[in-house]
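Hi,

Apologies if this is the wrong queue. I'm a grad student, and the batch job for Recombination protein RecR from Desulfurispirillum indicum produced an output file that my downstream script rejects. I'm not sure whether the problem is my script or the file. Here is the sequence I used:
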Amino acid sequence: MYALPSVELLAQGLAQIPGIGQKTAERFALEVAAMAPAKRQAIVRAFEELENRLIACDECHTLAESSPCPLCRNTSRNRRQLCVVETFHDLVAIENAGVYEGLYHVLGGKVSPVAHCSPQDLFLQTLPQRIRELGVAEVIIAASHTPESRITMELVKRSVLSAKTNTQVTFFSSLLPVGAPLSICAVDILKKAFHARKNAIDDQLNAM
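Support response: The file is valid. Your script probably expects a header line. Output copied below for reference.
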């Protein structure tokens, strides 16, 4: 067996990416190793740039290169609407769907005993304060159609109610495919799920 420690180390790193198995990671690592030095260096510089520039927005907690992020700074966004999402991936999916013009609140994950993620690991504590400060009229809960997401979003609902405002709580409809991450849903499905929320009321959350 012929193996290079540096290539194996790269494969181990690539295997940490969700959706990439060990075999695929090993193949990618071999491809990178076989590249011309200039191409490898370009990839290295891209990773270094990513590491040096990425931060979390102090307001919405999304990934950004400045804080506040461009979405939070954008005065043309509807500050009376706040969309709560689990991850940065979900935010990107909704933005790409072009269906929403308000602000976001990124939780940073979902409650999952398997992933060792508890409510204390999420950005829930800052939500009531943001609702009060922004004068939010509607909180839109955008979650995947999974048991973990339902538990997480029930916590979001309680957090919204703790703000003691007249904020309306709505959520993406059950048009989302069961078990699939919101971030991989087709644009037309996201649009339909977003618009269908208009017929939802906050006490229907458990019926998702």
